[in-house]
Design a protein that fits this description.
334 residues; alpha/beta; globular
């Protein structure tokens, strides 16, 4: 690749954004041709004091209240990784769509050539997708807000209205079950039980954050024509029933882990013991509530998109538990 490459990662102050930035900084080691180009990574953050990664250029961007800051930041790059991450602690539910639209408007004015939009939501495909997003009945203000799913769908629509299809890549990563289970680590450690949504006929899409990072970085450093206009879904290596999840956890942690079915309200109470941020909890509950029903076909769609992009399969749930053994094991149980 000989052309100048400048990549801006929005939401770089969250765990996923930080991991993407770090992954991009490793790309020249894997692809020496990048060492001879003007390859530069820009980390868009909410506060200039935050330093996601040492070698990235950190820029403060506020596309909602200061649109010029976004335009100025994006004029220096050709590609935008439009990450909207409610788990970063910075994106609030009422501002998620406005934040994305601010970046999209700035990208248009800055003549961005390629936008990669990661979304944790699959397309709505009845009867496999549940018809409703879980509602927080205890918070009337949040109940009246647009759900995260609705906002992410609106972001996709805005992108398609603002740019040609060839300039956009959609990267879906539904069911990041692995990382979400870390929110229940103390509960699993103490009780050897895994809280799951109260429906034994659900099947869970499963992917690992490390695989999302690998796919994202490969797309971002590739020529635009390689991935522009395409839509990918990172799942794998397979979808899991609740029984299969318990088996994978038991094998990975080397002790019996049982499934404990809970209502959305019960799951919320467990999560609130881990984080007091109701915004994070609301987002996690949406993702846990929007899993696929077990229909006549047994499983929802599995893709090999990760292999197509990176040339290798993803990390299994058992591998995740093996690698995170200490997080789910106390000295007494270990």
């Amino acid at each position: 690749m000989t052309q100048k490459i400048g990549i801006h990662v929005s939401g770089a102050d969250g765990m996923l954004g930080d991991s993407i930035v770090k992954g991009l900084l490793e790309m020249p080691k894997l692809y020496p041709i990048l060492q001879n180009s003007n390859f530069q990574v820009y980390a868009g953050v909410h506060h200039e004091t935050e330093q996601p990664s040492t070698n990235a250029l950190v820029v403060k961007v506020d596309p909602v209240n200061n649109p010029d800051s976004a335009i100025h930041a994006l004029k220096q790059v050709s590609k935008l990784f439009l990450l909207i991450d409610p788990l970063s602690g910075e994106i609030r539910q009422k501002d998620a769509l406005a934040f994305a639209k601010g970046y999209i408007n700035a990208a248009k004015q800055a003549n961005i050539e390629h936008i990669v939009f990661p979304t944790p939501f699959s397309k709505y495909e009845a009867p496999y997708s549940p018809p409703l997003t879980p509602v927080d009945d205890d918070n009337e203000e949040r109940t009246n807000m647009r759900s995260y799913r609705e906002q992410f769908e609106a972001i996709e629509s805005t992108l398609l209205e603002s740019f040609s299809r060839s300039e956009i890549t959609i990267l879906r990563y539904p069911g990041v079950l692995n990382q979400h289970l870390l929110y229940f680590a103390n509960y699993i450690t103490e009780k050897s039980k895994m809280p799951l949504i109260d429906n034994s006929y659900m099947t869970f899409e499963c992917c690992d954050i490390s695989d999302v990072v690998r796919a994202s970085c490969r797309i971002l450093v590739s020529p635009i024509q390689s991935h522009g206009g395409k839509e990918y879904k990172i799942t794998g290596p397979n979808l899991l029933t609740t029984d299969e999840i318990a088996i994978k956890a038991s094998l990975g942690l080397k002790r019996e882990i049982k499934v404990e079915f809970m209502s959305i309200k019960q799951l919320k109470n467990v999560l609130m013991e881990t984080t007091s941020d109701e915004e994070e909890v609301a987002y996690l509950l949406e993702l846990w509530g929007l899993q696929g029903y077990l229909g006549t076909a047994r499983k929802v769609q599995v893709t090999r998109d990760l292999e197509q992009i990176t040339g290798s399969t993803g990390k299994s749930l058992r591998e995740f538990f093996e690698n995170s053994y200490d997080d789910f094991t106390s000295p007494q149980t270990g």
